[in-house]
Structure formats: structure tokens, C-alpha cells
Amino acid sequence: MKETRIGDFEETILLLTGILGEDAYALRIAEEFESQTGRPVSIGAVHSTLSRLEDKGFLRSEMSEATAERGGRRKRIYTITAIGHSTLETSREFKQSLWNQFPGFATDNPTWQIS
Amino acid sequence: MKETRIGDFEETILLLTGILGEDAYALRIAEEFESQTGRPVSIGAVHSTLSRLEDKGFLRSEMSEATAERGGRRKRIYTITAIGHSTLETSREFKQSLWNQFPGFATDNPTWQIS
DNA sequence: ACATTTTTTCTAAAATGTAGAACATATCCA
DNA sequence: TGGATATGTTCTACATTTTAGAAAAAATGT
Asked: Of A19, A102, A114, which has the smallest distance from its Cβ to B98's Cβ?
């Protein structure tokens, strides 16, 4: 099993988990994904990605207590691990480095012409 | 519209193609990938990804003339299209926005700042 | 009790990522 | 001239990630 590799969707889900904090459970994350990207996402996609990320050690999870709301069953709350965190950072730095080497995007001026 | 979606490896290959310019052909890209990431990559992986990116319209390609070097046969040179370019930018901006919402990482990195 | 809501778990598929063998075409040098 | 060797592409197959939604579980409302 390759421990340190993550895909694009996985990266986004990991980031959203960090952003949502205490509220990071599958359904809420899917909701946030849709609102931030404008693209629909299936709940299954989010669930399977979350558990894969947990298998890889980038996330850890814990069941919350049930709430007093209608249908308010226990949620599986996800938290980023130290490894997940550093993987995110590495990925970010790598992409940033590539962007900086891309002619026309290196620094402040985003003007670039395509043939 | 599922046309505008790319994966993580695809994104890296697209970026490397842009960075390499006139020298962007499969073998060279694979070489650059290894030197930039430190991870090995098979030539087949790069080839299939490049042609997939071309099918999606993010890259276009053209055969070069053979060179006078030993074994210097014709290369397939890839170039980023306008669509490929804007897809890259969209992806970069989206990730940046997520990072800025991530508590403790709202960075003021100068080379990335959008506004 | 039974319907309804929120949420997870399970199953299956399509798309992306990975690997390397097979093939083609160039130069080098006896 | 032609085989050894180098550079590249094309092809084929398989693994992993991404996507979708149905089914099951656990809570409240009436």
C-alpha cells in the first residue's frame, strides 16, 4: 500500500474536512463541496473517499453522540492527522513550485497568450 | 459538462508540458517529472496521460522532424491549448481559496495571491 | 406503531493512474 | 553494408481512485 499519495478529489475532501472542523462529517462535507465548487457530488463518493483517506492514515474518525433533532443520528466526525496535514502541505508546495516555473505565471503578472 | 475535469497526475503533466515548452515530449516530460518529484514514473503512464489530455482538448500535439543525434527519431511535441490553460488556472484558484479557509493556513503567499 | 428525516454502509461502474513489452527509426562503427 | 545501440512512440493490460445511488440503521414526530 502506497502511503503518501493522494488524488485530486481526495485532496479537496481533506481540505474541506479541515475547514469544517467539528462539523466534518460526510453529509456536511458533500454539502460544502457542492456549495464551494458548484458541482454536484454523490454522497457515496464522499463516503468512500473519506474511508480511504482514513485507511491511508490522513484522517481519523470518531462517532459523535446523537443529537435531539429529528433524525439526528450519530455522525462519524473526521479529523486530519499530522500525516494528512503534512501531505497536504507538500502537495501545495509542489504545485506552487511548478506554477512558478510556468512561463507567464511565475510572479505577479498573470498575462499569458496562447497560440 | 464533464469536459473540464482533470486528475492530479494529469494536472502535473499539463504543468510540466507548459514548463518544458518546445521540449515537451513524453520521454523528456517523464524525466522532468522524476527530477522534480523524486518519484519514478513509467513512460507508459506519461504517454497514456498525454494522449488522454489531448483527447479532452487540453493539449494538442505535432510530430517534430528527426534530429541528427544518435537515435534521434521524430518526437511528438505537446502544447497547451487555451482550454487546458484556463482549466489549470481554475484549479489553482480553487485550491488557493480552500487553503485560505483552512484555519491556521490562511497564507499571504505573494506568488499565489489572487487579489 | 409507523412514517419521516438524517446519516452511514454497501455494491457496482466509469475514469484515471501505472507498468512495461513491442515496435519503429535514428546514429555509430567494424 | 549491416548489426549493435540509442531514442521514442504505440499498444495492451491491470490497479487504484472517483462517481453514483440503493439499502440499511438510528433518531424524532405524530
From this structure: A19
